[in-house]
Each structure stands twice: as structure tokens, then as C-alpha cells.
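Meet our chain:
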Amino acid sequence: MSSSDSRPWPPPPLRIGDLVVDPPILQAPMAGFTNAAFRQVVRDYGGAGLLATEMVNARGFVWLDENTAEHPDRLWGVAEEARPLAVQIWDNDPDTMAKVGLRLAEEYQVSVVDINFGCPVRQVTQKAHSGSYLLREPERMFKIISQLVKACAPTPVTAKIRLGCTRDNVNCNEVARVVEEAGAAALTVHGRTAQDMFTGNADWDRISEIKSHLRNIPLIGNGDLDSAEKVVAAFKNYNVDGVMIARACLGRPWLFAQAAAALRGDPIPPDPTMQQQRECMLNHYRLVVDRFGEEKGTVLMRKYACCYAQGKRGARHFRSHVAKVTTRDDFYRVVDEHFPINAQVD
């Protein structure tokens, strides 16, 4: 744990290349969740300095492009929505990544192109030899980053990693140096190994140690930030320039605003009332259905609805019902009849 005695407070804005991220609180890219509807809900509450898309399969993007198919749903809203906005991409081929990065920078004019070197999911690692699999190949990481940096300039390129592939092979310090030498503008570190998946606790001491291995680029810490108080503690106790909030925000998109207030030294806003949370979820549902239609949108919304209920009394009962909805009428009926009416945990 590092001393905060000499660190400025509140934390200054985060600089990623020429982009100023203020407050220095980022919304994590999360596959299957951080689509345009979710980003809009987060944006309405405020507090997130930089939002991000779901991770986009670069090879799949190229195939769709070459076959004149519609661009991936994971790029829904990107062209039109407010900035700043990061798009995260993944693959293991430098040329493919550079090709997609160029399109994102020039055609979509995104604020940041982020590279996923942290995903631990088997389909990405073992089957595609991408994501956190590449932590064992720093030389390939260097090629991917350096080619992407050249293709995207002046749009900044960033990288997100884990501590290593396994607990016996924690190589984040070496990887951090490679990321910076390749020209990346910032590094985000999730404080677990790929082997850990999402179990156990994030190791913020390990994250903090990485800072001494970076010369100029900012370090962003990620893992287990599920309250405004923990965000404040991350800045005060660890040597990071920014933080990234992930799973905790899925059912609590107001968490960013609470964290931003805490960093300013303002009173932390209370959670919305249960009625307000219910209205937030219904607004989210409307955004999803507007894009995907009633059938697909209703099915897609099931997982979000479960997140909104998580940790509340009656959540399990609500989940058992909402997991079966297929129509708008079904969804509204289940919400009316079963959505938790108070936030007290069972």
C-alpha cells in the first residue's frame, strides 16, 4: 500500500494522450452489458469520465465489413453518441487490429481505442488465443499495440491487462513496460490473474506496484470497486491515476455519480428510492426495445433486470419470474408484481 501524503487531493483529471478524463473514473467494457442503452443510462446519472463499449471482435468486424453486412451490434450507437467514448477491440493479429483501429479512429471518430489483453473467458483465450492469453506473449503484444498506435494516430490507444495468466506467472510489471514502450497512452490493470476469473479479491497492492515500472503513462486500477468509499480508498491508498468500475455498476448505474461526489468531497448522494430504481430499469428496457424490437429486446433485458434487483429482498423470487419473460406485457407485469419494493437484503 502506498502513502497518499504527497498526492494531490482531489485526484486531478486523467490524461490519455490529449484526452482529458474528468473525473478520473472510467466505466469498464463488459461483454453482453455495456451497450448503447446501458451507456445512456450511465450518462444520464453522470459521474463517469469515460464510457466504453462492449469488447468488439476485430476479426468479426472485418468479415462483416468485407461482406457488406451490418456492423456489429456492439457498435450500436457509437457513431452518434456523446464523447468521450472508448471502443475496446480484441484479436491476436496486428494487421487485423490495425485495420479495425483505423476505421474506428477515422470513420467512427472514437475518443480512445482500447485493446483487451485481460479477458479470461475460454472462448477468447484458448479458442482464439486472444485476451489474457496474450499476456504470455509480450512480443506479440508489442506488435499489436505499436501497429495500432500508428494506424490510429492521433487517437490514443490504451491497453487493459490482468496481473498475469496464472498466480505462478504474474508478469504485469514486464507487460506494463512493453505496453508503454509500444506507444500506448494508458494502462488499465484488473487486479486478478486470468486463472482467478472473478473469484477472490483484487490485489490492489500488485496494481499499485506497477506504477513504478511506468515512466509517463497513467495507471488505471480495476477490481472490486463497488462503493464510492472504495473508490476514494483506491486513490488515497494506492498509486493509481484513475479507476475503472465494472460489475458493480450493472445494477447501480448511479454509482459513478456517487463516486465522483465523494472525490470532490461532496456528500455522497443516497441510492435512488426503489421507485426511482424501478423507473430507471424501465427506461433502460425502453431503450433496448427501441433498438432490438420487443421480442429480442425483452429477452436481452432479462439479465439487466436481474442486476437491478441484485442484493435486494425478494431478488431471487423476481429473477425466477423475469428470466422467463418474452413480451413487453410479460415484462411490465413481472416488474409490477415482483420487483423488490425495498432495498433490504435478505
